[in-house]
Amino acid sequence: MRARLLAMSSLVIATVNVNGLRAAARKGFVEWLAGTKADVVCLQETRAELDQLPPEVAEPDGWHVVLVPAATKGRAGVAVYSRMKPDAVRIGFGSAEFADSGRYVEADFGPVSVASLYLPSGQVGTPLQEEKERFMAEFLPYLVRRRTEVEAQGRELAVCGDWNIAHQEADLKNWRGNRKNSGFLPEERQWLSRVYEEAGYVDVVRALHPDQDGPYTWWSYRGRAFDNDAGWRIDLQVATPGLAARAQEAWVERAPSHDQRWSDHAPVTVVYAG
Asked: Where does the entry annotate site (Interaction with DNA substrate) (predicted)?
């Protein structure tokens, strides 16, 4: 596997919050998966057990599937679909509280580890926001430790998924109206700055598109948010510097129209040089 991955001309990784994998499968996810050029696909908010999925989703031709549901039925859930069988898989990040939350899975593919992350969304003034804060407090030290580990092994890591934080004003359309809302709180944005500045990871899409508003990855189903492109950029590929330096191009696979969406999020795809 290691030799095969090193020999590849590129590694293509896609990530998307499917907003319920069973619903997404009925709306177009199956067709999207069949047509994607990605080698690895990270999914979040799958909200399903493996035996609840149709064969074309649970065992699609040409794909290996690692599905990690949450202990609480119908919540969260992450997955990694890959054309190559993973060398190893790790569920969770060493947190006792979030061990069975269906929010993190990491798979090794030769010299590159790819993780699917679903960071809690939070809601100001509620226990949901407290949960999000506890998650962030435990997750940042893990990112620091994990980068040290993979780089000591001569390897790289990409943490892909729904981070549920818009980092800068350029990352959401209506930033003025969301300054007191979860996802754009000053303390959340500062935490994400620490991921980049202290832990040393790179926001791959922003590095490739430094002066662009967006590209947005999530639009509310309410009103005409999608039609007006009033979105948020919260779905990220965050990579160790060595892997980020190999990123050649990145794009958001925004649906052509509102009625062709199979999730309220859109896939974020990045091509990394081999």
From this structure: 265
Tokens standing for residue 16: 């998307």
**253: exposed, middle or buried (C-beta count within 10 Å: 0-12, 13-18, 19+)?**
middle
Establish whether 45 is an annotated binding residue: yes
Cis status, amide bond into 86, omega within 30 of 0: no
Known active-site residue 265: yes
The superfamily (CATH) of domain 2-273 is Endonuclease/exonuclease/phosphatase (3.60.10.10)
Q: Quote the CA–CA distance of 254 and 266 in Å, as a whole number.
A: 5
Averaged pLDDT for residues 87-114 = 97
Q: Give the pair of three-digit tokens for residue 106.
A: 């990491």
Residue of 39, 81, 104, 118 with catalytic role: 118
pLDDT at position 74 is 86
At 200-235, the pLDDT tens digits run 999 999 999 999 999 999 999 988 999 999 999 999
Q: Is 196 a catalytic residue?
A: no
